[in-house]
Specification:
This protein is mainly alpha-helical and 59 residues long. The chain has three helices and two strands. It has a domain at 9-42. A two-stranded antiparallel sheet has the order 1-2.
């Protein structure tokens, strides 16, 4: 299987790729807020790192 390189995407790029507005993307992400924050994503972040670069915070 060929390995694909992923790049960071802004929330607007991610919303556009999903075919939804930024508001809808935010609503979709809201139920997962605690899990996303545990991975290092803060609500105000504009750029989301590529898959695999976030690691859960160790207490």
């Amino acid at each position: 299987m060929e390995r694909k390189t992923m790049k960071a995407k802004s929330k607007s790029e991610l919303a556009m790729a999903a075919g939804v507005s930024l508001g809808t993307l935010a609503k979709w992400m809201k139920p997962y807020r605690q899990e996303l924050e545990a991975l290092g994503l803060r609500p105000g972040m504009r750029v989301l790192p590529p898959d695999g670069t976030l690691r859960p915070k160790v207490p």
